[in-house]
Amino acid sequence: MKKVFYFFLSIFLVSSCTNYGQLKIVGSVPDELEEVSGVEKIKGSDILWMHNDGGNEADIYGVNVFGEIQQTIALTTKNKDWEDITSDEEGNLYIADFGNNGNKRKNLVIYKITAEELASQNIITPKKIKFKYPNQTKFPPKKKKRFFDAESLLYFKGGLYVFTKSRVKGAYGKTSLYKVPTTKGKYTAEYIDTFENCNNSIHCWVTAACISPDKTKVALLTHDQVLIFTDFTDDNFFSGVVTEHDLGHTSQKEGITFKDNNTLYITDEQSHGAGGKLYEFSLGKK
What we know:
22 strands, Neuraminidase, mainly beta, 5-stranded mixed sheet
């Protein structure tokens, strides 16, 4: 989404190289990724794939853990509102162009880049996975029914999972889970379940998602927390046990991926002279 960010957030932002409890700064995100909105670590690789928020170039960047760009790939499409990125077991990447601030969009799409393309091309025409929500009939709905924005995507056992972001005042923490196929086509997403976090603040917004390499933990990111779901049934991640991890720091965090089964990488956008960092966050051993 475009940075329409309340000014009071700035009182929480710190521009020094301070660590925040378990949240540790690894390095800075490159200037080319000022509005970093997604990060993904592909299995078997130490490179982190990142992209910017909507309105920027339709590029993805391979970045090392020191914040240095190793590879840039241009997609022959537009960055309408790129919000997250995920990958499957084969190393294919999926980029979520489904940011929907006003709940007006009818062109929601997930772009697929194959592992072969990623390894051999610098300009790629991605496959398009188009979808709509089964329970949205008006574009936009009434303000009290605007639950169709989204910033979060993950891959799990042959499916892509979208976590929505509420635009309804007093229900900011309401997040619905939908499933979309991984192959090119046009689909109606499958509704799975709804979860409610805190509701009274924009800090409750879910801004990114990822799943651990062993597929036992799903992480949802907010501006100041990570929600970890475990012991879920099949692909209903909300059926499991949820544990809230306070990050001890508030910023415009919009990217998350697992480094290993117990450690996360997190990124935040540059905002009010702060942010633009790559962090590590340890969940501790089970």
